[in-house]
Design goal:
9-stranded mixed beta sheet, 322 residues, 30% strand, alpha/beta, 4-stranded antiparallel beta sheet, 32% helix, 15 strands, Alpha-Beta Plaits, 9 helices, Rossmann fold, 2 domains
Amino acid sequence: MCGIAHCNMPPQPWAWHRMRCFKFVTSGSLSRKGWSTKLQDRGRLVVSCPDRPGIVAAMSRFLFAAGANIVQSDQYSTDPWGGRFFMRVEFELPGLAERHEELRRDFTAVAEEFHMEWELKRVWPPKRMAILVSRDDHCLLDLLWRWQARELGVEIPMVISNHPHLADRVEPFGIPFYHLPIGPDGKERQEQQILDLLRGQVDFVVLARYMQILTPAFLAEYPHRVINIHHSFLPAFVGARPYHQAYERGVKLIGATAHYATEDLDQGPIIEQDVIRVDHRDDPESLRRKGRDIERLVLARAVKLHEEDRVIVFGNKTIVFA
């Protein structure tokens, strides 16, 4: 059985009349505590630097000296002589939770020697992911189902929508649902409401068919941490009504693209794509129906890649260690 409880939120002048929060309490626990035992000692080291001999050896020596055991390693160079080198290493280190900051300090010397851009992360606790959605529920529900089945190693502290229609769909998952409409005082105020909810509570944001263009100010707070699903195989058919554009063009393939949102609409670094074959018998509604399946799959893959730190942004491209 599920019941609805009120959110204990401090009164906000901008939200008092227009923000509705539905916080659901479920009788069945969706706790992730079972994950923590096996992941407490798991870490990831992700680096990017000018390529030169000795990088892999230096990183391996560092982890070995710290007592870590490398369990997975991926690397790529744009050019072994003068190119850019990328590497992702996953490792086990007993007591990582207590030693994480010490490890970060010690790695600084290696990073400075090779002019690295780097991140040393713990796998546990999991990343916190907020979902923004408008009216379409297919991408939202797919993410929630995968989260409930533990296919996604994230926490979902909130779902936010500019429409109230999907509150009942979120209820069974026990996740707070916030309805933040765009009122007469403008979109900027609504975005500020969203940011006030997100700050300090989430690590990245997923636009699961959120049909609003985010402002540069919003995106600046989450650089390369806002994942959008676009219902076409970019760069084809950017903007609105891509399935109608595809129908008019008579395409034989349609697809979906997950990318990081940037100030340039539908132009951000691409994380994942896929396609499905269609033919002359498909009208715009048929294309849309088939496209939804691809959208769900592509977005789920992109979220998984991001939460496992498998994506490195390089200019307007990505290096993806799938």
